[in-house]
Amino acid sequence: MTYSYTKSTTNTFTRTHAEYVASKVAADLHRMKGFYGRPLVNQISDYYNELIEYLMHDYLSSIEYGFQRNNYRIVSLKYTVSFGGALIDSHAGGIYARANVNGASWFSTLIHKPEYDRLGVLSLQNFHNKLPFVRSRGQGPSDGQGCWAMERSYSQDGRGIQRLVFRPY
Fold this sequence. Notes:
This protein is α+β, with helices and mostly antiparallel strands. It has one domain (15-168): HORMA domain (Cell Cycle, Spindle Assembly Checkpoint Protein, Chain A), CATH 3.30.900. Helices cover 30% and strands 30% of the residues. It has helices spanning 15-36, 41-57, 114-117, 121-128, and strands at 60-69, 72-83, 105-112, 146-156, 159-168.
């Protein structure tokens, strides 16, 4: 006689999960502020709240925060949404601290998932009402004299973000 056993589980990504992941990004941004003077504290709070909403609604493909000069990246953090059991929940930190940002400006660029662009006018308006600010469309800077490295990931229940860092040579 043969017996079999099957178990299925369902993981739900909740607001608490989104807040946890966003808190790691906020911690990174606070470290950027400590090293480079930007972003401002109120900006970090706004970025945190914005990220929670984008994660909750699954509209985010990637988001980047950093410094640019003459439309070239100097140092930046890029977070890309990822799913699956391969994500490891790292601790925040490890921010590159020696970039020369004199004369540079702060930037942030958000890339939506295609589902965002398919929202109707009313759904889009309802979503925007939850955000601390609404971004205008545009592109981020080009790579400057440096390189990208994937360093960390922040996740809860198999859903989260991978962090890439652009740092100067």
